[in-house]
Sequence to fold (678 residues):
Amino acid sequence: MACCVLLAGLIALVLACKARIFGNSRRSGANVLRWRLKKENIHGL
Amino acid sequence: MHIITLPDRHGLNGPITTRRLARLLLIYIACYAIGLLFFQFAYTPPWQAFGLGLMIPGGGFMAYAGISCWQGIAHLFLAGFAFTLFVAAVVLWFATGNVLLPPLIWITMAYGATFMDHGPVRINGRDVAVATILVVAIVACVVQFRRVRQGAARRNANRYLTKAAPLVAAKIASTADSPASEFTLQEVKLMRFLLDRALQPLSEFEGFEWVDQFQTAAVRYQLHFAGYALSMAQSTRLPAMRGYLEEAQLRLIQKQTDHRIWRYWQLENLWGNLKSGRDPNACDNIMYSGFGALQIALFHGASGRRDFNQPGSFTLTHPDSTAFVYDLPKLTETLRRQYLESPFHLLPCEPNWIYPLCNSITASALHAQETMSGTPYWTPQAETFRRYVEAEFIDLHGRFVPCRSGYTGLALPIIGGAMPQAMPSFFLNAILPDMSLRQWLLLRRTLIDSSGRLRMKSFWPIDTGNYGFSYASAFAATAMAAVELGDHEIAGLCLAELDKRNPIIESEDTWFRSRASVWAHAVELIARSGGKNRFRSLIENPLTARTGPAIQNVNYPDVLVARAVSQGETLTAVFYPGDAPGRQPVTLCGLMPERTYHCEGTESSHLLADRQGCGVVHVVLEGRTEVVVRPVT
Fold:
């Protein structure tokens, strides 16, 4: 039983570290590359 | 042509690395000995398991491991899993500088094993002794094997450098370098990909890839390399272009001061250096400070402006209003001082992880600022830098070590294919060109086969700019180095392969390379903007004065500039329409006050400069439009 609890704890720790360190990656991929600056957002040129 | 050879060396590592490794070994032996004492003399099985756990990560679970019953096999798996966790902690240590994690996981698992209550331990002292002897023998064999194999590879490399390489180098040198002329329409569109991202308001980061802020996909690198690319573009094709091109470089530098870009350092400094400082420029972290210094220096060198020499011009403000006040001179002085104090004479990126590539970038920044300011930031330490790179950061085989731990001396295995070997050659060409050429020639052997085709296995199929499966960054970065070294054959092959494997996706309102990161786009523009020794030239011959006629302003993105060069009092420029054809104003500056100019390619054939030496011409853009403005004699 102790072994199982320890295992679960370690897995949770790894997952927590992963989430904290890598964050989420929703803002990556083709949609990001497709983005283009719109004219109304160009200031000060 | 004389090519320097690899210095004589017999050991796998340099002297400082060897001392660090010896220290690590002593610490491990002490840990092992304590574990052995627990295992032999503890009264209860849990603490005997703890002893095993100290001897090897996850070893505590081996106390009940075996292959004769399912419980034994389960514990074997548990020990394997625990060891894998430790390996994962080591990977995270590398990725984020978290030096606490590996020992913490090690101790936690050793302690965790004490909670097992399965009676007397199943393994005995004889088992431990046999396993220890076996492991020591295997490690000794591996080390000896590597020493022999790498030693042979070094001798082979030196034979190549003495005999065949001079011929290859002469062939490369004899290839005429095409003079910097103008960007093609495709290159103009590539530049627009970066300009769009750079020119948005400072607080916005649309179109950048947010994956993580620790490793190679971090947004700071996208900003750095987009800046390097635009500076190279200005230096080689657009020296008489100001307007949006300079504004874009300026904004890319200012975006680096956004707290979201540099806040990772507080965490890294805490878990890597055990320090609470939040200032990302104060120590280590050259992946921000050194790279940023080069970004600013290249902007100064390409534009002739000196915005960031002003005191406090690169100030970072924390959300709690604490300000870390910097400018380029202060940044380079901070780096110079750290170099003098560093035991390896190279500086870490993540706490304790020292990358020769990042140091070649940082050293380029020091050299550039030395050239511009006259302050000896680089020259006094150039030879020391060379000596330490040779001894500690080039392996016995003759390849750049990707990175080395300053605490332990351990190095990351040679991974990443051609890119991490090619990129240092690009930057070293500005500071240690003979070493740059040698390393490039050694790498070049592995890039093409006997029929002159690229060896695909030399390129890593992972785009380091976003960790996606793509060769884009590998081809772009290798091409970038090849162009700088004047190796048109390799550059052409890499760029052709990039076109083939990452085709351009283009529609009315978008342009990008499929499955290529933002970072890879930036690196490609450096490659396409470059030419033989053009990066070195930007470092060694920065623009010191803004003279001659220039384009002060055009509407972006209605007008895209493919060429802008002034020779004497004559300005030559090439424009493309951005989105739609039309009539567009072009504001010129640097003209002789109240002088009349003859204009070709513009609506009006004459222009009278005002008292400030400025004037506006109009062009009708339907496609490539060349404009020449020269004074009427």
About this structure: Residues 76 and 369 of chain B are 58 Å apart (CA to CA). The longest helix of chain B spans residues 125-162. The mean pLDDT of chain B is 95. The domain at 155-540 of chain B is CATH 1.50.10.20 (Glycosyltransferase).
